[in-house]
Amino acid sequence: MACYYYVPFQGHCSFRNPTLSFSLNFNFINTTHHLASSFKPFLRELEQHVFRVDVLKAAVKNTSVKLLDAFVDSAFQFVDYPLNPSQTNAAPVDEIKEAAVITNIHGDIPSEFPQGIYIRNGPNPLFGGLKSTKSVFGESGPIWVEGEGMLHALYFSKDINGNFTVVYNNRHVETATFKLEKLRNKPSFLPAIQGDPLAVFTSFLLNLVRFGKPLKNISNTNVFEHSGKLYSIAENNLPQEIDVLTLEALGDWDVNGAWNRSFTAHPKRVPGTGELVTMGIAATKPFVEVGVISADGKELVHKLDLKLDRCPLCHEIGVTKRYIVFMDCPLTVDVNRIIHGGKLIKYESEGNARIGIMPRYGDAGSIHWFKVKPNCTFHIFNCFEDGDEVVVWGCRALASAIPGPDPGSKEFAWFPTKFKPAPGKQFEDAISEDQLLFHRPYEWRLNVRTGDVKERNLIGANNFPMEFPIINGAFTGLKNKYGYTQVCHCDSISSTGGMGRFGGLAKLFFEEQNTEEGSIKVEYHMFERNTYCSGAAFVRKEGGAEEDDGWIITFVHHEDTNICQAYIIDTKNFLNEPVAKITLPCRVPDGFHGAFMPNQLLNKI
């Protein structure tokens, strides 16, 4: 459905018994032969003692790990997380091992289409799919956004005659926890997000003690470029640097040790300066910290604790020329709730919601908080300054698809009541303007001088729900005219997954009003029946003079034939058929965000 989110727990644990701390520098002995002769017997004995202690510690640790593993193996049963029969494109695929040249292209790739890489991230779970567990403590399960990340890439290059060669490749994002489970060759991390409170809490603790962290680094949500380097990210951990040519994960990016917490899946580049703004969410204080990274990616130039009193699941941060924009919605993580028998993740429909506007180098005292109507907004089109106002365009809903359904729930049973269609009616006819529970484009105008707030729906109730908004990236933080989204088919939302399927794309004209409805103009590019997309990205036309000079590229899956393609759609002629349909050599499972990066942005191409 609307978005995805993975709980950003931060916790580390290791087996550390009390140890002696020796700060002897053995090189100093060489300076005095007499002292060296006197101390050598003592030092040899000391070295042997320390060696014996280290061996003992290692033996204790190994024994403890084996005992805990034996306990988990006997007490917990891993069970396949059920898939709805309609979820034909949810099952994982294998790595193809060798990049494949594509020859089946219907139509023509435009000559102005840039050389570069289109890459999409998404879950591709190990061991055949997501797993739940059953134990004496109850049942615990994953949330639908989990599963180890896999990158799917299309490389576009052309010869001196302008003829394109397109190459496809895929590869898992091999984080440290991926390598750990792959080495064990079996599911090892216990699902610790939803289920019976005692089972969730026990799983959380067992993961922490056995592996030093309660949750896996799945790195399955988005990809982004900064300073010529490509990164894969899920916001429960640090980004993974990715080799552009091989898709190999090269390790964590912690900004030379300066950033030691989770990292948003949607960092934003500041217009004009090239700095990168990020944030990190944690289940313990400080709940939210914001960081500003230098344009060359080598330095954390500013860090700010927002000093919040709760952990909101804020998925995306916004920027303007001068400000950082933070969405504080009432979807929260609260460990105390689960200790008292409640849910770890919960959306409070009547909870407080606000938007924070802060100077880029400000502190917690400089944040201007604007109270807004309760909502759940995961994704932002854009933010920009308009006089005294900061304008925020996002995809807003009045309920949350996170954490999602419990295993085995029936069609629509897990939805809040207002998500369901009225008997005999379509979704768009079952709700009023004030009950738009699926994500739809929305506007907030926040006056930093007067404190006034204006908010409105940008489209009418008869339009399709929309999510995964994108714009021409050159306009991030600046006033823009156009936005694009994936169009959600509400009736295709599965009973065991929170993400709907997207049967088309929409182009939004922010400056053109639809006088009949009092909303903005929207054009739809709908796909063939039972065809759904993921990872749509905007591709700028080389030498394009206008904001919408370019294309949307997206992976699509045809359910009737199980064939996957990449569509290239001209954004100037949005209602027309795709200019090119590229048939892929294998299936690309449903996923999350994609991006197109032209060659000149990437150091290695």
From TrEMBL:
Family: Belongs to the carotenoid oxygenase family.
This protein's name: Carotenoid 9,10(9',10')-cleavage dioxygenase 1-like
PANTHER family documented for this protein: BETA-CAROTENE DIOXYGENASE, CAROTENOID 9,10(9',10')-CLEAVAGE DIOXYGENASE 1-LIKE
InterPro entries noted in UniProt: Carotenoid_Oase
Pfam name, any one: RPE65
The protein's required cofactors: Fe(2+)
Keyword Iron annotated: yes
Keywords linked to the UniProt accession: Dioxygenase, Iron, Metal-binding, Oxidoreductase
